[in-house]
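Subgroup meeting minutes
Present: P.N., E.W., G.H.
Scribe: E.W.

1. P.N. recapped why we're keeping a running log of single-chain structure predictions: easier to compare across weeks, and new members can see raw inputs and outputs side by side.
2. G.H. added today's entry (293 aa).
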Amino acid sequence: MLAVLYALVFLVGASIGSFLNVCIGRWPAGESVVRPPSRCPSCGHRIAWHENVPVLGWLFLRGRCAGCGGRISIQYPIVELVVGLGWLAAVWWFGLGFTGLRVAMFGTILLGIAITDLKYYLIPDGFTVFGLLWVIATALAAPFIESSALFAGPWDSLIGACVGAGAIAIAGWLGEAALKKEAMGFGDVTLMAMAGAALGPTRSLLTIFIGALLGAVAFLLVVYPVTAWRRRGTRPAAPVAALASPDGPATEEDEGPGMPLVPFGVFLAPAAMVTLLWGDALVRWYVGLIQGG
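Output recorded in log:
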């Protein structure tokens, strides 16, 4: 019986992951996620129900469109699988209740933000505005359904949204003053408003710190080497180059010696999830380290 329950949870999560793929593909282009129905972007072939079964549909089609034979990105089954496993992990860890649902939905939204920012250098309002409304609504409902110390309470949720958005906006303003160019997009501000509403004021600041740390590591290990390769006229692997530049892999026509910006949402999103799950433990460890020192 328990195995059937977990299988159903995975199926629900994978189905939401399928819809997440639609949001990732359409929101950056300003398209509706409701109409028209799922179709091949190359030939317009309407996806049949059996072709749209999460993970299995892609395997059944062998990664190609049934209409034109064009390749279907492996992103689709990977996102469906990751979201399905994420929902399964949330239920296994927190139980089949309100808290597990909140964790699963929060992680799904963060995944959509990270992928969209990585691919398009853009964080759609569809993710952040819905996420902010969802987090605040569930914070208000939690005392009457299933309270959890994992998420911020109603008052801390409102304060956390202000602190998270304000802190990242100030960081962006300081970066712009130092670099003489835009250092932080408005999508990062709305992302931190959502994350701050879920985490509260203290952990929202911790999220920015962890995100900056992850971004610094990526800069040293990926962005800086890619920039050096570009200046020497060589081409790094496409996935690495795509992370370093919003325009994708470098070509001979690329100009300008400036250091490319890193999509910060790619690092803020996992940082928010890490902070949700282990933020309190990290704060206690740090305070103990300071006091012990």
